[in-house]
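Hey, quick one: can you model this chain's 3D structure?
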Amino acid sequence: MPGIQRMFDPNTGGGIITSIPQTTVFANSKLVAVQGSTGSAHAPCPKPPIHCAGAWATIATQSSVFVHSIPVIRDGDIDTCGHARTAGSTSVFAV
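Sure thing. Here's the predicted structure for all 95 residues.
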């Protein structure tokens, strides 16, 4: 079962979530990531620029769990830059 993603969790390119469009739901003392969260620059930034800070966003590909009507991001979801989410919570899961 995939773990949920939270503030500062990375994608496979090393981009970490730094901005989340919700402020009230936490897991493991970290803000839960939802669709539309954005993050840090990671390889191969600056070319192409889609990998640069604030240029990519998270996409919930299969989540049936929502925070304020916004889908939760899980391990394995693919960001708009093409990298997969990884290393989320090991104790809070979403299907």
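One thing worth noting: The chain has one domain: 1-95.
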